[in-house]
């Protein structure tokens, strides 16, 4: 199995570090976020990795080359001309997964010890178009799932905005849904590439919202695992306590 590490973002929340470096190279106990996620994928048996780059792309490429991929075979998806967000970045990377039935996508700034192999097993058993890692944690934005754990929508609890099929649900139907916070980790069937209608710069969440009414998209709950979004300078200190 192959994986895509999404590392092209500007990392504005991690300033001042990202004024001179890409967020993927933010260090946690002497290892960059990129190295840590490459090594995490290795523990799950994945050594074929694609990394998309935009912000300070040359620094990421140099780190990969000088460290020989930390033992993995790493390729580059170049977005230096224009950052494409998660959905556009995945679509641009479709060539890499041409001969793969399923593949993994991860945000490079998420650190976890989740049992990805179990998520992959569930995905292969149930064969949805995508399986999304989620936890029960406080967030301003949630994915909404029905009692079969099928994706039904998205909600911003701060603004009340909703997306996806849920916007047409009755009040009772909405009350039957459960909210889960997305972990930025996906297992995706390559059939999705023929279903994506968006082009240019767009989010994978918007793709899921447009597809989940007619396609099964499941969740994998890993609430008992460690998970940290290393998006702000203070989260680096927290990460150094959680991930040695």
What does this entry look like structurally?
Strands 1, 4, 5, 6, 8, 9, 10, 11, 12 and 13 form a 10-stranded mixed sheet that branches. Strand 2 (27-28) and strand 3 form a beta hairpin. This protein is of the alpha/beta class. Helix 3 (85-92) packs across helix 6. It is built from 7 helices and 14 strands. The chain has one domain: Alpha-Beta Complex (Spore Coat Polysaccharide Biosynthesis Protein SpsA, Chain A).
Name of the top-level CATH class: Alpha Beta
Work out the strand percent. 25-35%
Enumerate how many helices there are, as a single number. Answer: 7
Distance between the termini: 27 Å
Low-pLDDT segments, ≥5 res:
none
* Helical residues, percent: 25-40%
Total E-strand runs: 14
Named at the architecture level, the CATH assignment is Alpha-Beta Complex
Task: Provide the succession of SSEs.
Answer: EEEHEHEHEEHEEEEHEHEEH
Basic shape:
globular
Overall domain count: 1
CA gyration radius, whole angstroms: 17 Å
Q: What value does the average pLDDT take? A: 97
Overall SS class: alpha/beta
CATH fold type: Spore Coat Polysaccharide Biosynthesis Protein SpsA, Chain A
Full CATH superfamily name: Spore Coat Polysaccharide Biosynthesis Protein SpsA, Chain A
Task: Summarize it.
The chain has helices at residues 33-43, 57-66, 85-92, 116-126, 171-175, 204-211, 233-242, and strands spanning 2-6, 27-28, 31-32, 48-53, 73-78, 102-107, 110-112, 130-135, 141-145, 151-156, 162-163, 178-189, 217-221, 227-229.
């Amino acid at each position: 199995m192959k994986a895509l590490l999404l590392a092209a973002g500007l990392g504005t929340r991690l300033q001042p570090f990202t004024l001179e470096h890409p967020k993927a190279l933010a260090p946690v106990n002497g290892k960059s976020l990129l190295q840590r996620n490459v090594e995490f994928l290795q523990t799950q048996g994945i050594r074929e990795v694609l990394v998309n780059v935009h912000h300070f792309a040359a620094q990421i490429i140099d780190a990969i080359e000088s460290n020989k991929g930390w033992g993995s075979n790493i390729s580059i998806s170049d977005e230096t001309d224009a950052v494409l967000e998660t959905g556009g970045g995945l679509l641009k990377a479709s060539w890499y997964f041409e001969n793969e039935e399923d593949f993994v996508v991860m945000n490079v700034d998420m650190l976890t010890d989740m049992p990805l192999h179990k998520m992959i097993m569930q995905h292969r058993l149930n064969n949805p178009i995508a399986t999304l890692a989620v936890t029960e944690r406080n967030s301003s934005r949630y994915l909404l799932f029905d009692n079969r754990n099928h994706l039904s929508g998205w909600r911003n609890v701060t603004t009340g905005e909703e997306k996806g099929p849920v916007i047409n649900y009755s009040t009772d139907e909405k009350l039957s849904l459960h909210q889960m916070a997305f972990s930025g980790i996906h297992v995706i069937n390559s059939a999705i590439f023929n279903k994506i209608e968006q082009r240019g710069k767009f989010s994978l969440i918007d793709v899921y919202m447009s597809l989940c009414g007619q396609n099964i998209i499941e969740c994998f709950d890993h609430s008992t695992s460690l998970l940290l979004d290393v998006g702000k300078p203070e989260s680096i200190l927290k990460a150094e306590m959680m991930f040695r």
